[in-house]
Amino acid sequence: MVMIMLHLHQAEELLQRYYGYPAFRQGQQQIIESILSGHDTLGIMPTGGGKSICYQIPALLFDGITLVISPLISLMKDQVDALVSMGVPATQINSSLSYHEVQERMSDARGGRYKLVYIAPERLESEQFREMIQEMPISLLAVDEAHCVSQWGHDFRPSYLAVASLVQSLRTRPIVVALTATATPEVKEDICRLLALQEGQVFVTGFGRDNLMLAVRRGEDRRSFVFDYVTANHGQAGIIYASTRKEVENLYEFLRQKGHRVGKYHAGLSEDERISNQDAFLFDDVNVMIATNAFGMGIDKSNVRYVIHYNMPKNLEAYYQEAGRAGRDGERSECILLFQAQDIQTQKYFIEQNEQTDERKEQDYKKLYAMSDYCRTSRCLQQYILEYFGDPHAKECGTCGNCTDDAELIDSTVEAQKIFSCVKRMKERFGAVMVAQVLRGSSNKKVLQFGFSALPTYGIMKDYTEKEIVEMIQWLIAEGYMSLTESQYPVVMLGERAVRVLKGEEQVWHKQRAKPIKRQEDSQLFDILRQLRKTIAEREGLPPYVIFHDSTLREMSEIVPTDKATMLTIKGVGEAKWEKYGEEFIACVTEYSQKA
Ligand code: ADP
Q1: pLDDT value of position 452
Q2: Which atom of ligand 1 is nearest to the CA of 549?
Q3: Which GO terms describe its biological process (predicted)?
């Protein structure tokens, strides 16, 4: 116990010295404690939650090397660049290196020159590499993006399966830490089993990201929404996800022609194009990236201020991972989903196109419905997501689009009763559109064939359009009054709450539309500091956010530090960063404050 306390104290010191952060985030401390007390550990945190620090700090405390398995070269490069810029000896071994370079780095690693060595999983399949590794004193093995070991995960990489046998082959077994943002039970189970974690402690932490303002906008003209938003947030970095290549191309052309500096990314582009477009975004040369879900894994850019989903993604796991790419620096950022009911059809089409087992399809449908419920609920969005990821005690966030929506509450009890009653009389055997048609009194062939025109509920909502009724039904489903069967042609069923409403025991309140969202303005000093960061980044050939995060620059622009001691109190300014860039930033701040 004393040992752990000692370690923790040291860990906090290192966090301040190298990273310039005063405290661990929720979850980081638990995971680090677990590793330091010698346990294999599985840490599940959302994207942007701060997984890297969970193994980087122990790496600095352990005597030997920390070997990090990382799935993407770009991800490794970013991490190693960031570590080196903080003064931590780290390197990467990947396929971009020559045989000679690999030998040299391995020998340096054996000689104790590096604390962290990043490798791609494919390395583990090389016999020669495994032999070389036997000579290395490995204290900790960190498996990043650990869901890649599972076929249930979205990025299955067979080479991850070689991790367990590597661990077994080492003379001294290192502690193993696995990290991922995927929290489904199947994936969790697979990681523990396939990586052979010994008595692995599992921590699911910090899925709540307080700085993300979640919002869903229904029925918007998507193009003009995006145009207005990008224009209003000119100069800020953002990602816009669309579900097809065609949609990406169209939106890209549209915004480009309107004079915005935008980039695009999808699997239909050549590798060179993809790399250069990605770099342009990372280096702040273009502000907005329009992309399919092919973009993002391994994107560490911390100053993404907004993520807009032009279409609804296939499930909440994918949504939260993509949306989570906003605000990794902890700064207030927006995640807006533009929902249209036809998105559900597109996703169903994708599910049907995939050659999957029936069991898998059923699961995909279930996840799709949870996603579409998210788009329709008027409950707290953050709470909805946290409950989905297994936290039943999540509180309302108070900041999402639904919590801050001060639109009037409307009593919709009577409409709800009409709908429930109609569903009941149709014996709970039809979909939302058919129910709406009966309520509207449609003389559609199918409606007449089934004899629904004789029902007392036939035509009792003829003042509404079919679309309005369908939307109301969907909303009642999202609120849990009714449910849909999980199949390709889902049927509407009544839940317990609907029965209470029918009996007059519960009322139904419905909220109206949300207001447009506006960001707060940045100060002039912040813009000047950002310019300086860009100049330094170009000089050093690094992405700007590797120099300092937006949050660090913003704090600088608020505190206006003109001496070393004050500068070191800014979050994100550690000793090494001070040595490298401190003077330049002090000079810049001083010049500004003298002019002001
Ligand atoms: P993940 O890998 O979980 O997506 P990262 O490890 O890239 O997330 O961390 C996300 C961001 O949060 C990074 O910019 C990192 O510097 C920052 N961060 C991590 N831990 C802390 C902390 N304790 N205090 C402040 N910022 C932190």
Answers
A1: 95
A2: 14
A3: DNA recombination; DNA repair; DNA replication; SOS response
